[in-house]
From TrEMBL:
Anthranilate 2 binds at residue 167. Pathway: Amino-acid biosynthesis; L-tryptophan biosynthesis; L-tryptophan from chorismate: step 2/5. The keyword Amino-acid biosynthesis applies. GO terms for biological process: L-tryptophan biosynthetic process. The gene is trpD. Gene3D superfamilies: Nucleoside phosphorylase/phosphoribosyltransferase catalytic domain, Transferase, Pyrimidine Nucleoside Phosphorylase, Chain C. One of its GO terms (molecular function) is magnesium ion binding. It comes from Harenicola maris. This is Anthranilate phosphoribosyltransferase. Its cofactor is Mg(2+).
Length: 339
C-alpha cells in the first residue's frame, strides 16, 4: 500500500490535482507501490470529477518516462485512435499509416489488439505477415529501414502490468483509455489522433501541446467514429503554432464523396485484412475514400501537403503506385527476419 497515494485520493475527489501532485500519484501506479484498490479509488475520483489537462499530461508524462523508447527520424508521426468507439469499422488508421508512409512520411505507429472492433491494428497486421510482438530494437531498425514501424503497446509499456488488475476490476473507462495516443514510445511531435468522444478533442490537443507536440489533429466523426468520417462532418481540434483551433471537416473539403457509414463496417481479422489488401491493390470503394480522407489530414499535419485536396492526391498516388503496399511487404520482412 502506498502511503504517498492515500492522501492524494482524497484531494482528487475535492479538487483538481496540481501537475506535481498528479505526477506523484501516477508514479505510484507504475512503481508498483499502489494497491489495485488505491488505484481504483484514484481513477474513479478523477473520472467522477473529470480529468483536467494537467492531470492527463502528468499521467502521460509519467507513462512516457516508464516506457521502452524508440528513436525516430525527424518528422516522424503517429496515426492512431483511442479505440472505444464501439463501431467495428475496417482498419482505417492502420491503412492510413501505410499510405502516409508510402507518401514519404516516417510513421511510428503505436497500437494494440482489438479494443472497440473485432480487429484492432495488431490483429490486422498479424494477418498480413507482420510480427507485432517484437521489441524496441527491431522496431527501431524497421522504422529506419522501412520508414514505418508498429509499436505494440505492451512491449513498450511493461509498467502497465501494475495497472491492469485495477482497470479490470473497475470495468469502466478511465484516464488510461485516452493515454495510448498520448504516450508514443518514439516521442513523435506530430500526429493524427481519433477520439471516441467529441468532448475529448480539445483536452487531448491541449495535453499534446503541453507535452511538446508541434502539430496534431484530434478528430471525432459525427457518426461516432474515432477518425475522420467519410459519412459526413467530423469535429477537429487542430494544434499548430502553439495554439488549438476547433473546426469541422467534411469529405468534400478533400474533394471526396460521402458514403454511408455501413459501407466501412468491418468483421473478423482475416476479413479486414482481405479488405486492406484489396484497398492496396487500388480498388475504388468507400474504404478507399475513408483512407484517402484520413491520409490527406495526416499529410497536412506532417507538413507534406498544404491542403486536404493536395493530401488526397498524394495519398491516391501512394496507393496506385504500389508504394503503400510496398511498405507492408518491407515491414513484414523486417519483423519476421529479425523477430
Amino acid at each position: 500500500m502506498s502511503s504517498t497515494l492515500r492522501p492524494l485520493i482524497g484531494l482528487a475527489a475535492e479538487r483538481p490535482l496540481t501537475r506535481a501532485e498528479a505526477e506523484t500519484a501516477f508514479g505510484t501506479f507504475f512503481d508498483g507501490s499502489a494497491t489495485p484498490s488505491q488505484m481504483g479509488g484514484m481513477l474513479m475520483a478523477l473520472r467522477v470529477r473529470g480529468e483536467t489537462v494537467d492531470e492527463i499530461a502528468a499521467a502521460a508524462a509519467v507513462m512516457r518516462a516508464n516506457c521502452k523508447p524508440v528513436r525516430a527520424p525527424q518528422g516522424a508521426m503517429d496515426i492512431v485512435g483511442t479505440g472505444g468507439d464501439g463501431k467495428g469499422t475496417l482498419n482505417i488508421s492502420t491503412a492510413t499509416a501505410f499510405v502516409v508512409a508510402g507518401a514519404g512520411v516516417p510513421v511510428a505507429k503505436h497500437g494494440n489488439r482489438n479494443l472497440s472492433s473485432k480487429s484492432g491494428a495488431a490483429d490486422a497486421l498479424s494477418q498480413m505477415g507482420i510480427n507485432v510482438m517484437v521489441g524496441p530494437d527491431v522496431v527501431e531498425k524497421a522504422l529506419e529501414t522501412c520508414g514505418i514501424c508498429f509499436m505494440m503497446a505492451p512491449m513498450h509499456h511493461p509498467a502497465m502490468a501494475h495497472v491492469g488488475p485495477a482497470r479490470a476490476e473497475l470495468g469502466t473507462r478511465t484516464i488510461f483509455n485516452i493515454l495510448g495516443p498520448l504516450t508514443n514510445p518514439a516521442g513523435v511531435k506530430r500526429q493524427l489522433t481519433g477520439t471516441f468522444s467529441r468532448d475529448l478533442i480539445r483536452p487531448m490537443a491541449e495535453t499534446l501541446l503541453d507535452l511538446g507536440s508541434e502539430a496534431a489533429w484530434l478528430v471525432h466523426g459525427s457518426d461516432g467514429t474515432d477518425e475522420l468520417s467519410i459519412a459526413g462532418v467530423s469535429y477537429v481540434a487542430k494544434l499548430n503554432d502553439g495554439a488549438v483551433e476547433i473546426t469541422e471537416v467534411h469529405p468534400e473539403d478533400a474533394g471526396l464523396p460521402t458514403h454511408p457509414f455501413e459501407a466501412i463496417l468491418g468483421g473478423e481479422p482475416a476479413e479486414n485484412a482481405k479488405a486492406f489488401q484489396t484497398l492496396l491493390e487500388g480498388e475504388a470503394s468507400a474504404y478507399r475514400d475513408a483512407v484517402l480522407l484520413n491520409s490527406a489530414a495526416a499529410l497536412v499535419v506532417a507538413g507534406k501537403a498544404n491542403s486536404l485536396p493536395e493530401g488526397a492526391e498524394m495519398a491516391a498516388q501512394s496507393i496506385d503506385s504500389g508504394a503503400a503496399k510496398g511498405k507492408i511487404t518491407a515491414l513484414a520482412a523486417a519483423t519476421q527476419t529479425q523477430g
